[in-house]
Amino acid sequence: MVIKVFLASSSGSTAIKKKQQDVVGFLEALKVDYTQLDIACNEENRMWMRQNVPEEKKPANGIPLPPQIFNENGYCGDYETFFDAKEDNMVYAFLGLPPPPGSKEAEQADEAHVVENGTHAEETNAEENPDDSIEVPVEERNGDDEATEGETAGDEALAEEDQAVEETDEAQAEEEEEQEEEDLQSEEEEELRQLEEQDEQGSEEEEEAEVQEEEETE
Questions:
Q1: From its phi and psi, is residue 116 left (phi > 0), alpha (psi between -120 and 50) or beta?
Q2: pTM of the model
């Protein structure tokens, strides 16, 4: 299964660029294999994306904006649904992928399974081990060692996921600061442009007044 992320490489919108960077950065942090498909330079990609986004997921104007995420030909969602899944630790479910052992999402799935089947599991364990004093075979003890190693690997995966979330949050904070600086610069440029227009208008009025005075003098 290949995750496809449709992007616009030459988008003039800062908001779209930020959303695209957020999605790509988080997928890379989680080490999820994905493919970027540019809709700005490839008409075929753009048409495919528009045709395969479900009608109920399209905006009022019928034109979906990037980023749009697919698993093969199956639609996963846009940035908003991706962000909600990230906040709920459900990114793998959003992408249609099994969560890696030890990840928060895998732990949540295990807890949900235990809650759903907990009573049955307790009864089964009681029937299989009526006497806790029975010696455990060497094979089972080796299995416990392997389980411990699996838990260690799971802890490492969980730590990587936490780090990925922290890095994404830091990058998002930096982008917000950059956006504020860009907005401030745009406001300053607009004010400067207005001042220049006022100066030009004042100069034209002065010239017209001088011409009028000369005509009256003549």
A1: alpha
A2: 0.55
